[in-house]
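Quiz preparation item.
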């Protein structure tokens, strides 16, 4: 009933949202003699804020057309390399003078399946494309996947990564941002133990919760504070008709969004107060920057119930990987089997989602990996998001990642 109540609320508020849009159009009409008066500006700003805060945010587009490759402008096109029921493997193909993709290191960027779409990594991809052949996991919204497509859990996630690595070919850097750290490490461990020639050349993990017993954060404590039965009862819902995923059990995106907003309520309320002021002042650049961020931040997707619950259980409650007890379809996962995969971990000194040391703990699990193939880097000034996006990512973190891949990864 929870999901049905949410959909009903969205339907009920739609006329009010439409009325706000019409009202704002009238207030901003150039023929309105009071258009520039403070009361009208305030009324228009309030209507825009209302519309923005209540509308449904669809999946954003990556939207790349060109990218600067070593000082030369190249054309960019999105290519779906393979389609799976729950994920598209996308390649950002670059063409133009000076672009030789055969000479650029290949990166499989694993987007987090934790509520937001893969487009959250738009800035990450744009930076990586300047020197790399980039592929990304474009996870599909579970509410749009028919029930007949079957289940999708953490084991399926790992199988997808192994299959994608084999499709792309040898010499790939597997880069996981946040949540994908655990499945990426499982995939690398299994492929290394099997001496699979398509195992990753390098692993790069950014803000990944490998061992959440270390410096637990508020999200970590929340995940471990209640029994799994509580999560099953209180946060799992069934996709309503007429969605394509009708009757699929999911962890709904709107519940995840509520959790995201609750983590930093003052930050978001302050952002909207500033947006109100921007609209009144006519500061179009600042207003556009606000809209760009929240168009992405407020666009969320549903996760399959089995994937969400298994992750809560095995990663955040029982800590199976760092305790050496993780299994994949009954097979023990042995990180010590990783012996020749260069491994870099990245943390943010101000990360309030993945605590200090949780990602670097992955290096300790790879007991047979030579020290010269390991690198732990902490940027003291970035939070969770800043590790893979923004000016410090471009200026400070990316150059270290690119150098590590070039120097340590097998090409």
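Solution:
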């Amino acid at each position: 009933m929870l999901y049905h109540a949410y959909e009903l609320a969205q339907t009920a508020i739609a006329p009010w949202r439409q009325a706000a849009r019409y009202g704002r159009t009238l207030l901003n009409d150039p023929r309105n003699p009071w258009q520039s008066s403070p009361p009208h500006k305030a009324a228009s700003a309030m209507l825009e804020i209302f519309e923005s805060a209540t509308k449904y945010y669809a999946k954003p587009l990556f939207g790349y057309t060109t990218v600067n490759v070593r000082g030369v402008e190249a054309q960019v096109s999105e290519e779906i390399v393979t389609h799976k029921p729950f994920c598209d493997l996308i390649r950002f193909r670059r063409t133009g003078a000076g672009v030789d993709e055969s000479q650029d290191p290949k990166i499989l960027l694993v987007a987090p399946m934790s509520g937001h779409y893969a487009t959250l990594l738009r800035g990450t991809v744009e930076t990586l494309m300047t020197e790399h052949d980039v592929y990304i996991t474009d996870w599909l919204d579970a509410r749009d996947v028919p029930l007949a497509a079957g289940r999708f859990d953490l084991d399926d996630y790992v199988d997808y990564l192994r299959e994608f690595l084999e499709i792309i070919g040898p010499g790939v850097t597997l880069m996981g941002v946040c949540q994908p750290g655990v499945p990426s490490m499982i995939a690398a461990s299994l492929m290394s133990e099997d001496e699979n020639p398509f195992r990753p050349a390098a692993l790069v993990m950014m803000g990944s919760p490998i061992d959440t017993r270390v410096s637990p954060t508020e999200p970590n404590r929340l995940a471990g504070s209640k029994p799994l039965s509580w999560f099953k009862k209180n946060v799992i819902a069934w996709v309503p008709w007429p969605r394509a995923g009708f009757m699929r059990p999911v962890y709904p995106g709107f519940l995840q969004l509520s959790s995201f907003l609750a983590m930093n309520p003052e930050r978001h309320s302050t952002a909207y107060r500033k947006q109100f002021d921007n609209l009144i002042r006519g500061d179009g650049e600042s207003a556009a920057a606000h809209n760009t961020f929240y168009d992405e931040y407020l666009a969320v997707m549903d996760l399959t119930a089995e994937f969400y619950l298994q992750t809560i259980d095995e990663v955040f409650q029982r800590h199976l990987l760092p305790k050496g007890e993780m299994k994949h379809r009954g097979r023990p996962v042995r990180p010590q089997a990783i012996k020749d995969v260069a491994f870099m971990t990245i943390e943010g000194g101000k990360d309030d989602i993945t605590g200090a040391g949780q990602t670097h703990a992955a290096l300790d699990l790879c007991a047979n990996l030579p020290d010269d193939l390991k690198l732990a880097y902490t940027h003291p000034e970035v939070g969770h998001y800043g590790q893979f996006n923004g000016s410090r990512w471009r200026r400070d973190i990316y150059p270290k990642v690119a150098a590590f891949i070039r120097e340590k990864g097998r090409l």
